[in-house]
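Lab manual, section 2.4: Encoding a predicted structure.

Procedure: take the sequence of the chain (529 residues), apply the prediction step described in section 2.3, and record the output as structure tokens. A sample record is shown.
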Amino acid sequence: MPRPAFFVGPWDLNRAFPCVPDDPAEGSVVLVESEAKGAAPPWHAKKLVLVLSAMRHFAAELEADGFDVEIVRAPTYLEGIARHVEERGASEVHAMRPREWAIDRRFVEAAEDGRLGVPLLLHDDGGAAGRPFLLTREEFAAWARPYAEKERKDPQVWRQDVFYRWMRKRTGWLMDEAGKPLGGKYSFDAQNRKPAKGETPPARTRFPPDAITQGMMGRVAAHFPHAWGSVQGFDWPVTRAQARSALEGFLAHAAEGFGPYQDAMLADEPWMWHALLGSSLNLGLLTPHEVCAAALEVHAAGRMPLGSCEGFVRQILGWREFMRGVYWERMPAMREANTLGAGRPLPAFYWEPERTEMRCLRQCAGQVKETGYAHHIQRLMVLGNFALLAGVAPLELSHWFWAGFVDAYEWVELPNVHGMALYADDTFTTKPYAAAASYVSKMSDYCKGCRYDPKARVGEDACPFNPLFWSFMARHRERLSRNPRVAALFRTWDRWDEGHREAIEATAARVREGLVPLEAGWRFDDDAG
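Recorded output:
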């Protein structure tokens, strides 16, 4: 008798998800390696190892429990599913909604036109405790559309802080019996901005590669010659058990310092006090509900300060859910958004960090090349901020983030890059996150030993962040001066004599002239899969 088939995407590796049968008798399970997706960009070698190894570990766990599991290598996900359906004689296919816009469109079309030859039943990827997201796409839209229409003078702008407060009330997390936020306010972000100079971050929980992972390391090294970085040193979690161990390690050893030091940066310290759970969440090894619940439990037991717990929960309950919701509301227009008209190619040193003398950029880009990771302030205020000030084309930076970070998928990197880092999509940010060298100098030790002077604005020794910042502000003065929080900066600009302003612009022009793209270039297919 024909049985259903269950498609488990590389982002759905959790037995609690509806794309995984509860019992082997319910049907077969198919995982697909999309050749088109694998060939789309110069993926980071460790990202390829992570995804391929996690898929194989998940399949092995199911097989050990008696499930009929097949891993298919095919041009696309749908072609792989079709092959499995034909071979197994499946009666129907169950799948979760894919996370990327183009792949999701193809799955929806396949469900409507019957191209698989059997029904394709798509399940929501949010809205329950055991799902990849806390909200369904429709639930976010129900919040976003009336809010945008009624509560903002500019109907295009959604605010994350308003969404976060709504989610706190909806879940009851960190709320008292009267419905008020614990500690009297929703965010303790202003208290969580300590530099960490002189501090020693805790050791990270590491996961040495087993035989399956070693096999994937060998395969990536041999068959993906254009992969960025190296497979060597791979130690990311590839199973649910390892991801749970990483969560427990963070809560036991790093959670207390996460709040105060979450914005801090130190040379040669890539992990700091961060949880490093993004890749596990985005593969499905962990769910947002269980991660937040674990932090709330540790806080309730007195082992995690309120500021640290709130800041951690906000990253998931607030930012992760918000970015995913905005992505689905704004696609596909978000890809083409370019509010500031930026068009410069991505400088070569993002791919080859040794090509810049700026210690902060060499540290951050070099860290990404080595590990596939940088924390959110390195992403936003160093790598993103430089691209913003230099006028880098939004999709150029977006592709680099998507390809280079082990936790990056279009649904999360695109709104972060276009909306947060580059102000290319201004539907949910009120001003650019632009900063001069003083921010990096305050929050890191990167400037120590750098050949550039973080206090100088002009000349050969001026930190490029400074002339680029002021040139950026002057270039976009008409737009930015409408924001009262930014207008004061122009009074500083106006106080300088014309000669100093011209010297700043000349220094900025010299910096921009030196930003050469990578000679070979890179191919990227946004819609592959």
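Check your result against the sample. The beta strands are 5-7, 28-34, 69-74, 93-96, 120-123.
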